[in-house]
Amino acid sequence: MRALRLVLIVALGAASPRGSAAQDAAARMDGRVPADVARAVQAIAEGARARGLPVEPLIQKAIEGSAKGVPAERVVEAVRVLAGRLDEAQGALREAGIATPGADAVEGGAYALTAGLTASQVRELVRLSQPSYDPALTLHVAATLTALGVPPEQSLQVMERRIQARQGANELLDLPNEVEVGMARGATPAEATREVEETESQQGVTSTSAAPPPPNRPARANPHKP
Amino acid sequence: MTNYPLPVKQLLDGELTLAELPPELRAAGEEALGLVASVDRTPVTLSPTLDARVMAAVRHRATSRARRVWRWFATPRDLELRLRVRPWAAWASGLAAAAGVALLLTRPPARVPAGAVAARVATPNVVFVRFVLYAPGAKRVAVAGTFNQWDQTAAPLVPAGTGGVWSTTLALPVGQHQYAFVVDGRRWVADPAAPAVDDGFGRRNSVVAVTAQGARTL
Fold it and tell me: Chain B closest CA to A121's CA: distance in Å?
């Protein structure tokens, strides 16, 4: 029965290039997602693809919901909500000046929205990130900080300071881990973030990126100088 | 031994006085007190060999080889150390020691592993990531996520000892992954040591980012 379904999917999907993508999505969900859910998700995914959105997260969400034993209608609703977030993220990226945002950036924006940032905060962060930083990177870092429990506004401020200090990608990627270290010592996410910021300002912000530090700021402040 | 009546025994124990004894027992009481007094005054004669035996035991302890060695090690004593050093050599040694201390103090602190995931790089695009969950009482634990199509049979954890710690190591492609632990095939649990986001179904998914340098909390 499953083999017959796959043959039908392949036969129908071979009719057009667009059908090829639909066939791939159907094959991915086959056996993992109930047929009615798969049909509904495919329809949502087709609409998303037509708007230039990545569809892989939608398929993953359907597979995840089914694996977790979530009722069919809730799975479809979750996929629809995620498609809406991808739409919102794409809109924020475009408003920030990226005409055709890539899948990574759109997924990063949706992740940030899921974590708790607002669309305007996503837009602001993307605007700050350009042109030196990949917006997917900064969105993921800010989203992870927020997922750790750092208030979204504080996450945005921390990222803004780091971007203005022209920190390298590795320093940005390390930021959530540094906050986690403080949290492991008993600080709240907000306190841990503040401590990381204070330590940075005491030691002076180091830059490992190719871009030089701004001319009005020394590369490394002397911590012994008042 | 004379078997005195109870009041006389109480007299000997100091519980009664002679005046408190009944008149018919006072004579017996006086006799008993007299006997005890005579015993108390009897001189004790020690064995003439006692002194010799005690002194032999003391000498034996004092001359034990092991005791002497231990005493040699343990007894504090004054030592005088004289050094003959050129001033420039003393300064150079001091500066080297100060530089060593400064190096130790300014070395960046070691990073704490990111929660329950630790990683090492396998190839540029694949990184081994270790997942750990403390689940005492669980009969089986698995990790499911975007990297294995949320298949709860694909990546079982194995118990590390009998303390309730379960772990496994997976080769994950570079990228961001969401995951959760599945306990006993029915309970989905977010990694308590990793950031988590709403999964859209009323639960939380943990997030790990795999970069070419290893896994990060991202």
Answer: 18
